[in-house]
Every structure is written in structure tokens, then in C-alpha cells.
Amino acid sequence: MTPERFSYLLSAVEPYLKIRQDRGRTAISAEEKLVITLRYLATGDLMASQTFNFRVGRATVSSIIREVCDSIWTALNKKYLMLPSSENEWMAIAEKFDNDWNVPYAIGAVDGKHIAIKCPKFGGSMYYNYKGFHSTVLMAICDASYSFVWTSIGSYGRDNDAAIFGASSFFKRADFGKLKLPPPSVVGGQQLPYVLLGDDIFPLRTWLIKPYGGNNLTDEEEVANYRTSRGRRTIENTFGVMAARWRIFRRPIRANIETVDQITKAVICLHNYLMQTDNAHYIPSGFVDSWSNGEFKEGEWRSVVQDDETGLQNIRRVGSNNYTATTKETRDRFRDYFNSQEGAVPWQYDVAHNCGPLAS
User: Fold this and answer.
1) pLDDT at 357 exceeding the cut of 50
2) 18-27, 188-197, 303-312, 337-346: least confidently modelled range
3) 3-state secondary structure (DSSP) of residue 80
4) pLDDT at residue 293 above 70?
5) C-alpha torsion angle, residues 271, 276, 277, 280 (rounded to 10)
6) Angle at 75 between CA 69 and CA 76, to 5 degrees
7) Residue 343's Cα: distance from chain center in Å?
8) Are 200 and 211 in contact (CB under 8 A)?
9) What is the pTM of this model?
10) Among the residues of the chain, which ranges form H helices?
11) Spatial separation of the C-alpha atoms in residues 311 and 276, rounded to whole Å
């Protein structure tokens, strides 16, 4: 974060911070409160380390972190974490997916992650996940530029992606046609709607497509899986950059559930804030995955988090494969478009046929 970005952040957060004046004691300034919190979130060190570094009592540090995280959310979420509310805003996201990832009519990519936490009081088995640790779930949708456009925070660790997403407000609004998406367009003889890109756990919908499953896929299906996998990597990279830059997620968070939710909300806002205002410093060249004429290159964030075993973890891939003929037809239309003269890219057949992991 550059000094200019810090100064702006301080000016945005300061009105929401309380400065307590105690007789005979120097008050902790808003700037110092923000520095303590940013250091805690960025380094992943324990609160006790902040007590030593800043010579502030442990209870005071804990109170400061909760207050500042809540203030960051209040100050930034309505500006830097807003779900598109018009056709033009959705079309801008889709255009970026098409230009950068060769996936037309994509309005975002969705996935979920476990956030490791210490065993919560009275949590029972609700937060204990199948990987053997306690967690809460972050479900999110990102755009083509690695910014979050929608999040759901705080679900039980025992739940899976499909159940959490299916119960969300976004899912219900999408199913009832309340997202104000642009109408479908006819391209190359195919009527293509605007769709979300999901993994194989998510339910197939007219507004959500996922890969073809099974081992005996046709060449056309392999190509379709490869093309959509390019767009789905945006959410993997978004989570990866966040975990690499904000190392609070590199180990189980030692705080109560409410504080964990506040921390997660603050980091999401900070991630979007820096992505949208200072991305040259936040994600320098080579930090995220990239393609050049079909050749894939891993981003540097992967080496930063490669030894992380308990930070942001994938959610269990179990779910229903039931879908209607209409939803299957939507996915098939994209398959046909990707294999048409109008929708194909020159390298897709070589990559899809010769590099299986990229096509899955």
C-alpha cells in the first residue's frame, strides 16, 4: 500500500473511530489504530505480537482490531463491494471476461473457501469440516479483474458450496430473474444468455454453467470445459491474491466467530480497494495466472501460499448433478459457440486435447 492509499484509507475510516481521552494518558490516535490493524491483517501475527510491537495492552489491541475492521467495512463496502445493479454494469464485467479470458457473456466466477478458526465456544460440530479442522465459510463471486462483486460470510464449516450458495440471496434473486441482467444475444446462430461460471459442485442453471462431467467427453465438450476453465481461474486467483497479501488467513484465526466475520469483511474491502485503486503495487506483473496464445503460466502468489495447509481451503466437492433440459440446453449452446467459426480461438484444440489438466 502506497502512502497515498494509506492516507485516503485513514481519511475514510477516521470518522467511524472513537478516540478516547483518558486523564493522564495519551489517547491512541486513529492513525495508530489503523496501522495496528493493517499490520495484524497483513502479517498474520498473533495479537500478542502487536502488543509487543506497539506497547499497547492485549485487551486494547483486541478492541482496536474489532473497531477498525468494523469501520473499514462501514467506510468502504458501499463503494468498493457493490453488486452490479444495471444492465450496463453487468455488460462491462462480461466484456472484460471476453477480452481478457476469451469467455463471452460471463458475469463472474463463483467459489467458496474455508477460513480456518480456533474451536469456537458452544460451536459443537457445526464449524468442524470434513478436512478435520474448524472453519467458517466464505462464498464469493469475482469479476475478471480479481475484485469481489458479491460475498456471503460466516456459514458453518460443515456445509458445502452448493448448499450455501443455494440458500443465498444472490441465488434466489438470480433464479427469479431479479439481477437485471442484459437479455440474451444471438451470436453465430446461438442464443447466449449472460451466465455465472461455476465448478462441478454447483447446480446447472440458465444463468450458471459448469464443466461437463465424466471421462468420455467429446472433443467439443473438452473444448468447452477448457474455455470456461479460463474464466473460472479468476476466482481461484482472487482468493489466492487475498491469502498471499493478507496473511491473517495463513493460519487459524484465534478470535470469536463475530470477530472472524469482521476481519473477513474488512480484508475483502481492503482487497477490492487496493485492486481498484493501486493494483500495480498490489498485484505486480506476474503475480497472477496468465495465458499467452494458450500457454499457461502460474502466478507468483502460488509460491507464497504453497506451504499453507490451514488457511483458505477448498470446500468439499459434493452435490447434486440434477438439472433440467432447459439448463442443459444453455450449456450446450455455449459448447456449440466455442466450437463454431465465430467463437473458436486458434489454440483451443491443441490445449484441450494435449493438456488435460487445463481442460478439466
Assistant:
1) no
2) 18-27
3) helix
4) no
5) 80
6) 90
7) 28
8) yes
9) 0.91
10) 3-13, 30-43, 47-54, 58-80, 87-101, 161-166, 169-175, 219-245, 257-277, 279-282, 301-305, 325-338, 348-354, 356-359
11) 25
Give CA–CA dist 95/115, Å, rounded.
32
Q: What secondary structure letter does DSSP report for 15? A: G
The backbone torsions φ and ψ at residue 78, rounded to the nearest 5 degrees and listed phi first, read -75, -15
What is the grid cell recorded at 64? 482496536
Report the alpha-carbon distance of residue 4 to residue 107 in Å, rounded.
32
C-alpha cell at 25: 494518558
- Pick from 41, 170, 164, 47: which is nearest to 114 by CA? 164
Integer CA distances (angstroms), 312 to 157, 209, 348, in order: 12, 24, 31
Better-predicted residue by pLDDT, 357 or 312: 312
What are the contacts of 22-25 at 24+ separation with CB within 8 A?
Answer: none
CB neighbour class for 11 (10 Å; exposed up to 12, middle 13-18, buried from 19): exposed
Q: What is the mean pLDDT of residues 285-295?
A: 81
Beta-bridge mates of residue 350: none
